[in-house]
Amino acid sequence: MSVIDLRSDTVTKPTSGMRQAMAYAEVGDDVYGEDPTVNKLEAMAAEMLGKEAGLFVPTGVMGNQLSIRLHTQPGDEVIIESSAHILRYEGGSASSISGVQLCPVPGNRGLLSPETVELAIRRPDLHTPSSTLLCLEQTHNVGGGSVYPLETLHQLSDLARRHGMAVHLDGARLFNASAQTGVSVAEYAAIFDTVSFCLSKGLGAPVGSIVVSDDASIQKLRRLRKILGGGMRQVGILAAAGIYALEHHVARLVEDHANARHLAVLLQGIVGVEVDVKSVETNMVMFQVPLFPQATEHILGQCREAGVLLNAVGDRSFRVVTHLDVNHEDMEIAGKVFARVFSCL
Length: 345
Ligand code: TLP
Prior knowledge:
This protein is of the alpha/beta class. Helices cover 41% and strands 17% of the residues.
């Protein structure tokens, strides 16, 4: 039985075209700056996002954490939405690596408003930490792939700058946002000092993220990456996958969004399933089955046995994510599996 893996868009496997590109990549020692394929990917990403330079890093976590380290001093406070990936899923690394504390601000589907951020920004005071960085997430993972309107991003960034703060974007899925709104990734990136985005999610590369910024910041980030053990050698083999992803897998993201919407509509037709179809903006669907008699683990097990993998995000609350390795027909099959599993409702 073939498995339909909807746990995350991180699960995709490289296509044969991508593997070919990896196999024939020109390589060199990237710590010496001599890997032509890495250099090409970094330049390409910087150009696409309209920034001076880019840095290839192994993971989205590293992209975020290097950026936090760049913008802060130990004891500073970082303002962040309370369900942000940096806060929930990065192992507390902002405090262990940068010695900062995170100030969680509640958002609506993960999206912050300027009014609530304004209240959270510390005013200069002997007693308090300094608010030096605002981190935003686009699209927002726990928010269900939600997308900030461009206007709100401008307002938040203007506000932060008025208070002398830097602004970082965890843009793990920035290309999904752009595919949904038609706003270019460069227009989004222009609002931020640093932007990290992932090649290994919707874009389908096996590994890698990029941080883009100005030349001076990327130089500092390159050193910080080395310090944290992220200086890689003949890594053009991986960068080639990233280049392939940027060349071949950006335009198709709208298909993932259509598949997610389709699955949400199928879920909506199942008695006892709570899903807000309107809130499905990109490649994620969040749904709940609050009255299901058995526990979350049981539901996951039932779906797994029927060949569908998904993740729980809370009690009887689930996330499904569409990506390169699933298609419209898989949505139909998954919809039928969910209907069967939840048929006792
Ligand atoms: N998200 C993963 C899990 O870690 C939850 C997923 O399956 O969605 N920023 C955002 C918004 C992310 O969603 C993720 C990964 C990261 C950063 C970290 O990326 P990696 O896994 O490459 O370190």
